[in-house]
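Q: Convert this sequence to structure tokens.
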Amino acid sequence: MARDSHLIKMTLSQFNVLFYAMLIGLTVMVSVFYYLQHNEFMSTDESLSQTLEIPLFVIVAIGVLGARWIFPWMTRQIDEDLKMPEKLAKLRTAYILRLALLELPVIFAGIAFLLTGREQYFMLSIILIGYFFLFRPRADRLRDALSLTESEDLAWEEAAR
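A:
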């Protein structure tokens, strides 16, 4: 149990590092795009807006809906009989995929803003970063996503303290 508790604590720490690194990276990227756009370092092409609107809508829809759907689906597939390291590996895979699905629309909206100069795309990327923040790793939510045995649940509680 102590080994599982230590492994859980390390995994939760890794989730936090991964999440905040991605959040800071996205925020810095969008901020740099804003700086470049408003200091006229980039030339814009407003006609690209029509070309980018449909792909942007599709990417945002896939990212937002996919992140809401795929993580619970993947975590339900984790077999209760697996040992804790295997469960955590599968949970990590599901969480990374969720973050990637949320990251793509932010990047695409930021690039659309950079290319076109349309403030709507910038605001969309800010809203998507806010939505990304809602999926920060919380020990209770991650625990609820797994089917844990009683001893694993106790190890999780000990690690989350």
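The mean pLDDT is 92.
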